[in-house]
Amino acid sequence: MTSFVGIDVTKTFTAGQLTGTESGKAPKVGDLYESYDGKTYRFVKYNSGAGAIAAVVGNAVGFYAPGGTSTGVTNEVTSDVSDTCANGAGVLAGAPGNGEYGWIQVRGVATLTTALVSGASGNALVLSVTTDGTLKVAAAVTDTVCAYCILASSKIIMCAFPC
């Protein structure tokens, strides 16, 4: 794991920047960063998926799995739920374009942009499989819990995504 000081988790990078102007200064895909307030972020590639779903700060993302079939990819994410296996990856800290790179929050308190599809304060949450970029209450023991609702009305969650 690489250590970073004072990074801007909202900053995004193109592939060209990572190998050109930002080479050696930018994080590497999969790097983790823990901020002063205990939040943990992971550097990933964003894929808009088949539905061309744009990245939105504060929306949930899942691991990219084309057509819902996992290929074992863990550092490429999407908000397009049709291109995930319902495994939550994190919450977008920035808004990278398709094929660009940025940070997702995986641990700590986060505020979502969109309301929960379902659930209430105190509920375990999973990636929604019906609404892009959202979370919902875990309903089955086989659901992959990725967060916990702290205050549903304010869209505040505790991230528990895989690092």
Task: Give a description of the structure.
The protein is mainly beta and 163 residues long. It has one domain. The chain has one helix at 15-19; strands spanning 32-34, 40-46, 60-63, 76-78, 88-92, 101-111, 124-127, 135-137, 147-151, 156-160. Strands 2-4-3-5-6 form a five-stranded mixed barrel. β7 and β8 (135-137) form a beta hairpin. It starts with 14 loop residues before the first helix and ends with a strand. The mean pLDDT is 92.
Features:
single chain, 163 residues, mainly beta, 5-stranded mixed beta barrel, 3% helix
List the helices and strands and how they pair.
Layout: H1 15-19, E1 32-34, E2 40-46, E3 60-63, E4 76-78, E5 88-92, E6 101-111, E7 124-127, E8 135-137, E9 147-151, E10 156-160
Parallel strand pairs: 2-4
Antiparallel strand pairs: 1-2, 2-6, 3-4, 3-5, 5-6, 6-10, 7-8, 7-9, 9-10
